[in-house]
Amino acid sequence: MAKKPRPKVGIALGSGGARGWCHIGVLRELEAMGLKPDVISGASMGALVGAIYAGEALDALEDWALKLTARDFFSMLDIDLSSGGLVEGADILEVIRRLVSTERIEDLPVPLALVSTDMATGREVWMTKGDLAEAVRASVALPGVIGPFRIEDRWFLDGGLTNPLPVTACRILGAEVIIAANPNGRFDGTFWADREHELPGLLYTWKDRLPKVAALSGLLGGEDDKEPTPQYLDVIAASIDIMTDGIRRSKLAGDPPHVVLDAHLSKLSVLDFHRATEAIEEGRRIVRENADAIARCAKL
Q1: Residue 143 pLDDT level (bands cut at 50, 70, 90)
Q2: Cα(84)–Cα(240) distance, rounded to whole angstroms?
Q3: What is the helix, strand, coil percentage profile of the chain, to 5?
């Protein structure tokens, strides 16, 4: 008796800032199981990793992410805020175009949907055609951090604002089984705690060497504050996490995936891009933890 064909599998890669590096580990471990997704959807960092994976350049992205340092991130800061955020985002366009040879989404070997938010209407937008690098740049426009991006006559914000874990986009692309990777699992129930944060500490370490960092450190308060208080980056990160957590819960209640991979990365800030190693390993771990459910649903 002939074996039934494997169902069409889609993977939805969620938003989460630097925690989204876990998607690299998720994709690596799925391939180790013998599973390559037939369709991909992504929001914010999920869009970036998903686009580069679909463009067959994940090796280069992982190498770049693992070498990224705090200094590299700080060098991209645009403290005059003229771009609408702390980071203008030109480097993101350059990275996508350098790593992926395919210029247009519709020409990729894997169907791909990148989620952004129309700044004028507040509506969710699925980008399945057009310039790949521009679509990624639009999807990662994290409010307060990365400036909005214009495509033709429309300005776009981060896709996580309207759909932080785009399961439905995967389904519309034809997926019969959907695996959703959530970088923002909240196992301790908190979004901020009175604790020393690594990123502000790194800012003070670098502020005498990089003028942009010196300017940003002024937004964070004195490094000798006696009591820990929420600082600029804390407020931005916690606000985004609280908002997207509620949106994600609502979306998944209406359209649940077959398997949800919840990463435990609450100790990473959305801006800890220099900590890719632990995020990638967590991505691998959550796939291994859910391997039986994945194999059963995907009929491996």
Answers
A1: confident
A2: 16
A3: 45, 15, 40
Alpha-carbon span 5 to 91, nearest angstrom: 42
Helix axes of 45-54 and 90-99: crossing angle, nearest 10 degrees: 20
pLDDT tens digits for range 167-188: 999 999 999 999 999 999 865 6
- Mind spelling out the 3-state secondary structure of 82-113? CCCCCECCHHHHHHHHHHCCCCEHHHCCCCEE
**Are the beta carbons of 289 and 179 closer than 8 angstroms?**
no
- The answer to whether 124 and 117 are in contact (CB under 8 A) is yes
Per DSSP, the three-state class of 73 is: helix
Token pair for 198: 């690594």
- Structural contact between residues 170 and 113, judged by C-beta atoms closer than 8 angstroms: yes
> Could you give the CA distance from residue 108 to residue 129 in angstroms, rounded to a whole number?
10
As given in the structure block, the two tokens for residue 190 are 């908190």
pTM of the model: 0.87
* Site of tokens 């020409």: 107
Q: CA quadruple 176, 182, 188, 190: dihedral positive or negative?
A: negative
**Helix or strand (DSSP H, E) at 155:** strand 154-157
Helix runs in the chain, H state only: 22-32, 45-54, 58-67, 70-74, 90-99, 132-139, 167-172, 198-206, 211-217, 232-254, 276-289, 291-298
Residues assigned a catalytic role: 44, 158
Amino acid 152 reads: E
**Strand pairing class (9-13; 177-182):** parallel
